[in-house]
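> @MW can you paste both from yesterday?
MW: sure, first one:
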Amino acid sequence: MNSINAPFIHKYQPTYFRDFEQLNPTTITLMQSLISLNNLNVLIIGDSGTGKTSIINSIIKEYYGNDYNSDNVLVLNSLKEQGIQYYRNDVKIFCQTCSLIKNKKKIVLLDDIDLINEQSQQVFRNCMDKYKHNIHFISSCTNVQKVIDSLQSRTILVQINPLTMSCLTKIMNKIKINENLNMSSEADEFILSVCNNSVRILINYLEKIKIINCHVDKELVHKLCTNISYTIFDDYTNCILNKKLTDGIKILYNLHDEGYSVMDILDNYFLYIKITKLLSENIKYKLTSLVCKYIIYFHNVHEDELELALFTNNFVNLF
């Protein structure tokens, strides 16, 4: 989908192996070799947000080429409460019929196989043994330790590298050029720091900037890409560093008066801690423990705005 009005998440979704910034040449060569050998019993392994599902879709696209037919692919939903047992009859019927494309096998796809129980994985493995002459079985997982050994031994394991800052920068620059986005270098740096290494989040932020259609500087990007502006948190942190306890408490109380709950404030400050350059790594470590302590307390007991003052006092005492 490359139409002008398409959402960015579809418009910039990779289609072929060459479109992925995180795939190294060795992995691409391996994938292409498996396609040419007509052997696609593959388990894609990678962290959340590394593009496992998109890579699987590109494998299917590269395998079938222009002959792609959705009736040749069966997608199993690992999140259904009934598990793969729910699909047993569907799988049986699908696997017993021939491919609609000459010299190509059908494909059964199971995303997040590590989320289903061992019994369901055994069912999937049995299907692989029984129908391997007619079906490719492609699956993905985040934690390979939760995938049974007998299933791993029947697949080719492909590890997907996490997205690096260099990959994210290339993706961002490509979209900026294509969409004529007018952003300052500080705005670029901030978006990369708050996207949490997720292409999906990065693209959503860039689409916001496209919608407002104006120059985006550091101040504006703080408002667009955070629930609570990090500029406010900068002011709060500087108050703490300068031992201005009363001013710091006032900033948090003002946020509370604007409608943010105590949990909202601490959740967003937790995210802010990870990227701020105002605090040393040692203080960040101690402060993260302190924030988590308060969040757990609010979740299990109660939430009171007075705790914002107590939190600020404890924060000052870290120095």
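MW: second:
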Amino acid sequence: QYVKRARWMLLRNPANVPSDQAPKLAELLEANQALMTVYVMKASLKELWQPTNPWHWRAAWRNWQAMAMSSAIEPLIRFARKLALYWKGILARMRWPMHTGQLEGINNKIKVMKRMAYGYRDSEFFFLKIKAAFPGNP
């Protein structure tokens, strides 16, 4: 019951926990070892999302995954297994940091060009127009 009331406090970043709630959080984490483990693992996973060298990320990911698997906490193990299915996509994001907003903007511009290109007989010309619109991208 106490954990349910402390849900939002547990979901906050450690730096954003108000000073009046910090003792309650410390008491809750001391009382429940599994909760403490998951809380620390959440903080270390959050550090992984900071874009660094992709190969350092891969080593840090393997380390985090090994810690999660050895924790003997079933929900954490399930989460680590599900996240492991997406490691290639996450690694690609680290190597080429493009936000979805940029991608949507590029797709929208291509759609507009496609509407304007209605009637072009040559698809090669259309692709040349797309490449000319985005000179820095291969």
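> thanks! The mean pLDDT is 84.
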